Amino acid sequence: MLLIIISNFPSDIKPQEINDVDLSPKYGATIKNVYFYDQNGKKIEFSSLIDYKVPIVLIPVYYTCDVVCSTTLLYTFEQLKNLNDLKIGKDYKIVAFSFDYKNTIEDAKIKSNYCKVVNGNDENCKFLVSDSLNINKMLNLIGFKVKKISKNEIAHPVSVIILTPSGKISSYLYGLSFLGKDLRLAIWNAQIEKIENLTDLAKSALLFCFHYDPKGGQYAFNFTKVAGIIGILMLMIVFFIVKIYKPKLI
Question: Is 166 helix (H, G, I), strand (E, B) or coil?
Answer without folding.
Answer: coil
